[in-house]
Amino acid sequence: MWFDAHIDHFDNHGAGSPTYPMRYLVDDTYFDAEKGPIIFYAGNEGDVWTFWDASGFMHTTLAQEFGALVVFGEHRYYGESMPFGDQTFDRKNLNMLTVEQAMFDYVELIKMIKQTQGLEDRAVIVGGGSYGGMLSAWLRMKYPQWF
Question: CA triplet 88, 82, 107: central angle to 5 degrees?
Fold first, then answer.
């Protein structure tokens, strides 16, 4: 799926910032719509499908055990989530490749999913591996109201 993420979340609080299509995956195979949480994978430096394929523990074992909706976010500048299209890696555009911008992409994605799916009261369990694991810890510390 695709989500319109702001390229710059922080200048003027994102107001007026252009957006880019950020890719994400959703699996509701085991989702308990009455009480299930959201399991969110904080994508890192690669194609989101690569992490999906390597993380069956999250989208099968944990999802089934907790009745969770599973969401995998693709990190900006990786896979197909290119903020500036063919010019994403031009030197002038690399200033938007930051941990802070990527984390806020994930905050906005989770907010949108919660609102559109009527899941505002659901817990979000965040995880990831390597750099994505660090992102998940930082998300939990910086945005505890969301993760």
Answer: 125
